[in-house]
Write a structure and sequence with these properties.
The complex is a heterotrimer of chains A (361), B (311) and C (149). Chain A has 361 residues and is an alpha+beta fold. Chain A contains 15 helices and eight strands. In chain A, strand 4 and strand 5 form a beta hairpin. Chain A is globular, with a radius of gyration of 21 Å. The mean pLDDT of chain A is 87. Classes of the chains: A alpha+beta (361), B mainly alpha (311), C alpha+beta (149).
């Protein structure tokens, strides 16, 4: 049969706001071209018209399932520009919220992986358990997903009373559930059959294509911004960076599940050793950082998130450039989907954890 | 004839089965299924969905082959309903009795790939084409082990008629005499019905709805009803072939036993939907040809040897 | 774990006041403390433009121009920066989150409506139909007022 060109387009139950043009010959994909750009809103340009504090609700909205990951880098960049020293309690609270968000994002990812493979229970259970973490985050910040919680100079409000006991209780529940997930979802013979040996990304290819995040760590390279360039109190907390050498979709799943456990470890240490004191610097709400440019990078749930800010001493930034991990993972699409089965397309696509809104900004 | 084992009973049973499936999956997935339609836990929800489908617009693509496009759902419904007519619920409640009942059933089951290919080709859509081809491969590959496992039962009971197959289970059910055959029939039935984990032709995230993509409104309703009627028919067939049909203590009437056993089989067939993801098409075909076919052949040869030795 | 809403609802912590953590729901305005400085509107202007200042009848000893904020919940993103911006502590956020309505004009909450602290704003009544499965939120249909500075 001759080659078919299928457009797994934006109106497709398996693609999100994103288009993939696939050439199929029988059951094999011969070429896959990603076509991003359907949700481009011009966030970087819009940020030039808003003051530094008013940018925060704008910038947390692209990456909605992990909103603290993106605002963290922005806030660090502004603090470096203005030369601010954040009090330690504020730093601990920021690390805590960022790790809670990482757990949330990974559970969401696991759930949608279930949909892509046709397993409806793998969709329902992680979403239900994610509510336990969302409840914790709601106690701290007030809203469920878009917190507007990090500000240059610290965080906006303090932890509520009894937060430590609630956290420890929720984590006991989550650990039991994670064991069940290992037994039912990861060791499921059909799941293992569909993800082992599929979409193999070797070490050289990973560095050559420039992928970031758990995709990189699933190919055996344990690079993580929290360990390489520690920010806030990450250098005082003990945790490991998981990496698995196989490079296929199965090892990427294992990397993310292990990261959830390491995040729980970080939050437990943070909640036990958090110091008393102020959590926010008193700053004017209209900030005018001195002129200059700065580059800051953090580790969001999907990979390294970086900001470049240039200010001219005004109350709005002159130029704001966002480098998001989903955009950096785009070259892997065309490379991994060559010579794959058509049925492997959703498996590979979602194991790269591509979030269209984040890539298009 | 029309009321009890006939079409009205089958359609009511199908509605209850859809509700039952949704509630069962909801319990597995820590949620509540349909809740609001009808006084009791949403029992009228499938009926509400059916009525909603009646009101929707029938969209027929411009380049599609109109006569074939409209023929396919009717063809599928005719196949499923004629399967029903041949399977008895008890000696007093049956529609059609025939000496070669099993052969006709096997022939009808082998016609389903034809109906699906008609639907896929007439839709004039790339997704439908891929889905239809996958369905063709799947159904023809799994029809062979299915038929061979049925032949194992025929060999042991010695006749093609369903009434005498149930009669010859008076001493022991064929489930105990033919465990391999029952397993092969179960898996083959799951593949014939396109249920998870074998719902490759309807793989939502790769090819939208496969061969059902272009069907909207009541066309889709008829296809879904035909699928569930076939589900009911195959479950009752499993009961008749392996679980002893209507044989049981005489506390209740015989057809009730058939229905109770079929509900058990239906539950067993619905549970994999909550437990397994979808298999890939080449892995599934490899499983069918490399595992199920030899197993069913081994089963057949063993049954022939046992019958020959006992004579 | 699934709740049968609306018969059973989640419990929530008290509303956001800016210093201690709390839930960010609908705003509650204290008309005795508000002086009409418009800092909340200035803060919101670049974020969501949901706050406009409108005039209200009646003498207010602290508020000579008699202007108060009016919040449009069709635009508000519930970030809470207006609560942080208010120097006099006249705005807090409560736990009321069931704010949906059938038409857009009734999403604009004028100051008197914002000032009522009960869980159901203004003259809202909860109507439970026969199947007890839906509730209708009837809020007074008010046309929006012109803004003045």
């Amino acid at each position: 049969m001759s080659e078919l060109t299928i457009s797994v387009g934006p109106q497709h139950p398996g693609s999100g706001h994103f288009r993939l043009i696939i050439n199929v010959d029988g059951d094999r994909i011969t070429k896959a071209t990603p076509d991003p750009g359907y949700v481009h809103r011009g966030v970087e340009k819009q940020a030039e018209y808003r003051e530094y504090l008013q940018n925060i609700p704008l910038l947390e909205r692209p990456v909605i399932s992990d909103s603290n990951g993106s605002v963290y880098a922005y806030v660090l960049a502004v603090e470096t520009l203005a030369g601010l020293m954040v009090p330690e309690r504020g730093q601990y609270i920021r690390v805590l919220m960022a790790e809670l968000n990482r757990m949330m994002s990974h559970l969401y990812w696991l759930a949608i992986y279930g949909i892509f493979l046709g397993h409806s229970t793998m969709f329902m259970w992680p979403f239900g358990d994610r509510e336990a973490i969302i409840d914790l985050a709601q106690r701290v910040a007030g809203t469920r997903l878009t917190y507007s919680f990090f500000v240059p100079g610290g965080v906006r409000n303090d932890l509520p009373d009894g937060f430590k006991d609630e956290t420890l209780r929720a984590f006991e529940f989550l650990e039991k559930r994670l064991e069940e997930y290992e037994a039912i979802f990861v060791k499921n013979p059909i799941f293992a059959q569909r993800t082992r040996g599929v979409g193999i990304l070797s070490r050289n290819d990973a560095t050559r294509l420039g992928v970031v995040g758990p995709t990189l760590r699933g190919s055996g390279i344990d690079s993580d911004t929290r360990k390489d360039e520690p920010y806030d109190v990450y250098d005082k907390l003990e945790f490991e960076v998981p990496s698995f050498p196989d490079g296929d979709c199965y090892s990427r799943v294992l990397v993310r599940l292990e990261e959830i456990k390491q995040s729980m470890r970080i939050v437990r240490q943070a909640v036990k050793s958090i110091p008393e004191g102020p959590f926010r610097l008193r700053l004017p709400s209209v900030m005018r950082p001195p002129a200059g440019s700065v580059y800051a990078r953090t580790e969001a749930a999907r990979g390294a998130y970086a900001y470049f800010i240039r200010s001219e001493g005004e109350k709005t930034p002159y130029r704001l450039k966002i480098s998001s991990p989903s955009f950096r993972n785009l070259p892997a699409f065309g490379f991994l989907m060559k010579e794959a089965h058509l049925a492997d397309m959703p498996t590979i696509y979602w194991s790269l954890d591509y979030w269209p809104l984040e890539a298009d900004r | 004839m029309l009321i009890f084992p006939g079409l009205s009973f089958a359609l009511t049973f199908v509605l209850l089965m859809v509700w039952y499936e949704r509630k069962l999956l909801a319990k597995v997935q820590v949620r509540v299924g349909p809740l609001y339609a009808g006084r009791f836990e949403g029992i009228l929800q499938p009926l509400a969905d059916f009525v909603k489908l009646l009101f929707k617009e029938l969209i027929i693509p411009k380049q599609a082959d109109r006569p074939l496009f409209m023929l396919a759902p009717t063809f599928m419904m005719a196949l499923s309903v004629s399967l029903l007519a041949l399977i008895p619920l008890s000696p007093t409640y049956m529609i059609a009795d025939s000496d070669v009942g099993i052969l006709i059933i096997i022939a009808l089951l082998s016609l389903s790939p034809l109906a699906i290919t008609i639907a896929a080709w007439a839709s004039n859509n790339k997704y439908s084409l891929i889905g239809g081809l996958r369905a063709l491969h799947q159904m023809t590959s799994y029809a062979i082990p299915l038929s061979l496992s049925i032949l194992g039962v025929v060999v042991i009971s010695g006749s093609f008629s369903l009434l005498s197959i149930v009669e010859s289970q008076r001493n022991s059910w064929f489930l105990l005499l033919q465990p391999l055959g029952a397993l092969v029939f179960f898996l083959g039935a799951l593949a014939e019905l396109e249920r998870v984990p074998f719902d490759v032709p309807e793989a939502e995230t790769e090819i939208v709805m496969g061969w059902e993509t272009e069907y909207s409104g009541i066309n889709y309703g008829i296809i879904m009803t035909a699928a569930y009627v076939k589900f009911y028919a195959l479950a009752v067939l499993f009961t008749v072939l392996f679980l002893g049909g209507w044989l049981g203590p005489e506390i209740v009437a015989p057809p009730i036993w058939t229905i109770v056993k079929s509900i058990l089989v239906v539950t067993l067939m619905m549970i994999p939907r909550g437990v397994y993801p979808r298999v890939r098409i080449d892995q599934m075909l490899r499983f069918g040809w490399a595992w199920l076919l030899p197993l069913s052949l081994v089963n057949l040869i063993m049954s022939l040897a046992v019958v020959a030795l006992l004579k | 774990m699934t709740l049968r809403y609306p018969e059973s609802r989640l419990g929530l912590p008290p509303g956001y006041r800016g210093l201690k953590a709390g839930y960010k729901g609908r705003h509650i305005l204290d008309m005795e403390k508000c002086t009409g400085c418009s800092l909340c509107a200035v803060m919101c202007k670049n974020i969501a433009s949901a706050i406009n200042m409108v005039t209200v009848e009646g003498p207010f000893p602290k508020n000579r121009k008699a202007i108060f904020p009016q919040v449009d919940y069709g635009l508000c993103v519930f970030c809470g920066f207006c609560v942080d911006a208010c120097v006099f502590g006249a705005l807090i956020m409560s736990t009321d989150y069931e704010l949906s309505s059938y038409d857009k004009p009734s999403l604009i909450y004028e100051p008197k409506l914002l000032a009522s602290p009960s869980a159901a704003p203004g003259n809202a009544t909860f109507v439970v139909t026969k199947s007890e499965a839906y509730h209708q939120h009837i809020s007074p249909h008010l046309p929006p007022q012109k803004t003045e500075r």
